[in-house]
Amino acid sequence: MKLMFLGAPGAGKGTQAEIVSEKYSIPAISTGALLREAMANGTELGTLAKKYVDSGSLVPDEVIIGLVKERLAEKDCANGYILDGFPRNVSQAEALDQMGIKLDLVIDIHVSDERIVKRMSGRRVCKDCGRSYHTESSPSKVEGVCDVCNGELLFRKDDDPVVVKHRLEVYHEQTEPLINYYSKKGVLVTVEGQEEKAETTKLTLAEIDKVRNK
Ligand code: AMP
């Protein structure tokens, strides 16, 4: 099963991708997380990506496409995967087509811009394992500490309201056209992002079941 989560930054793609990954034992591949890891490790890729990620712009296509190609060639992707944050524009989607990859389902999680801005200010991300929390809707058990690995929870620099505004503009201009792109291919469904993440998960899993039972 090859899935992709589409949606504005902060719509909850990462959280849903992790839940689906655990349920079906297939990896969730977040290009944002791969870039943040490279940045934290100070690799060549991380150094190159930093200025784009920190300002909320897209990292150049050739860099991100190369990164995804390498990741998808790893053994754990043999039985499928969940893409989170890739493709982010039509040329990246075309590159995926050219790799001969046919997605079974693209789930667009829809959340209004107004709610996104509100959500992002409360988001905290584990510095070590990348798990996301929210100070109000899904807090960690101990404030500032990851439930899973005890890592420190940080506010992402690109979750600053000014950067979020730019990320939303980038989303509407460059990523939103993918709704039409995948709709034409007959693989797109839209899930209305709910306040309770468990409710969004229910809707998401129902859509996945429809495809699995086909
Ligand atoms: P995310 O965690 O998915 O919100 O991604 C964080 C940042 O990483 C984005 O704002 C971009 O700067 C960069 N990024 C992640 N995925 C991509 C992609 N597919 N293409 C270009 N840039 C990306």
Written overview of the protein:
By secondary structure, the protein is α/β, with parallel strands linked by helices. The protein is built from nine helices and eight strands. The strands form two sheets. The protein has a five-stranded parallel β-sheet with strand order 2-3-1-4-8, sandwiched between helices. β5 and β6 form a beta hairpin. The longest helix is centred in the C-terminal third of the chain and has 16 residues, at 197-212. The protein is globular and about 45 Å long. The two termini are 12 Å apart. 34% of the residues are buried. The protein binds adenosine monophosphate. Adenosine monophosphate binds next to α2 and α3.
Brief summary:
The chain has one domain: P-loop containing nucleotide triphosphate hydrolases (Rossmann fold).
Q: Roughly how many Å is the radius of gyration?
A: 16 Å
Number of helices: 9
Structural class: alpha/beta
Quaternary state reads single chain
Shape estimate: globular
Q: Report how far apart the termini are.
A: 12 Å
Query: Averaged pLDDT, please?
Result: 94
Q: N-to-C SSE series?
A: EHEHHHEHEHEEEHHEH
Give the strand content.
15-25%
Judging by the overall fold, what is the CATH architecture? 3-Layer(aba) Sandwich
How many β-strands, per DSSP? 8
CATH superfamily (homologous) name:
P-loop containing nucleotide triphosphate hydrolases
Low-confidence regions: none
Instruction: Give the distinct bound molecules.
Output: adenosine monophosphate
CATH domain topology:
Rossmann fold
Kindly give the count of domains: 1
Helix content: 40-55%
Main beta sheet strand tally, sense and closure? 5 strands, parallel
- Major beta sheet, strand line-up: 2-3-1-4-8
> What is the CATH C-level name?
Alpha Beta
